[in-house]
Amino acid sequence: MRSGKALYVGISSYDAASTRKAAAMLRDMGTPCVIHQPKYNLFERWIERELIDALRDTGMGCIPFSPLAQGMLTDRYLNGIPSDSRAAKEHGFLKKDMITEGKLSQISRLNEVAKRRGQSLAQMSLAWVLRIPEITSVLLGASSVEQLESNLGALQNKQFSDEEYREIDHIIFNS
Ligand SMILES: NC(=O)c1ccc[n+]([C@@H]2O[C@H](COP(=O)([O-])OP(=O)(O)OC[C@H]3O[C@@H](n4cnc5c(N)ncnc54)[C@H](OP(=O)(O)O)[C@@H]3O)[C@@H](O)[C@H]2O)c1
Description:
Elements: E1 9-12, H1 16-29, E2 33-37, H2 51-58, E3 61-62, H3 101-116, H4 121-129, H5 145-152, H6 162-173
Parallel strand pairs: 1-2, 2-3
The structure holds NADP nicotinamide-adenine-dinucleotide phosphate.
Residues 12-13, 37, 65-71, 74, 76, 85-86, 122, 139-143, 147, 150-151 line the site of NADP nicotinamide-adenine-dinucleotide phosphate.
């Protein structure tokens, strides 16, 4: 930045207060902070409390990572843990014991909501993240071209009814 080679800056996972501070500092230094990359998905909602307000106030975009909760918000684990899946690998952040009975029950019920919308669970999960105007894009992962192509289908239906929002939140917070 100081040598003029960085024209724009992005930050990741800063809380709302630090984001506001970073935006002001970077603006003063003449290198605008244009994007924030936080973890956000149906299971992890922390950005809804204060960060989205900070992004709106500072004019910063948002590109969440792990919008599919590393694969949990797909049909990947509905019938066990496939040997080629992320959870089956020794290394990485998704561990087998994170896929609990309770999570599986939620995933299975969310899958039913997605089916009624004519979507896969992955597509519904991505569309749901994209519902917030401050969210510019999503940073999704894929282990095959088929997954990526299927996930792009999320853009075919980004509308949710109030009833669907209520049902999704009920599954997440009351079961
Ligand atoms: N800024 C940061 O601190 C930070 C932190 C973490 C990650 N990141 C970035 O964010 C990127 C995305 O994160 P993520 O990989 O955790 O994202 P994610 O989209 O939540 O999870 C991706 C995984 O979901 C599974 N998947 C995707 N589409 C699927 C489908 N249609 N059907 C079944 N399974 C599907 C695949 O798992 P399988 O491999 O099991 O097929 C894939 O590897 C990373 O590559 C990394 O660059 C940034």
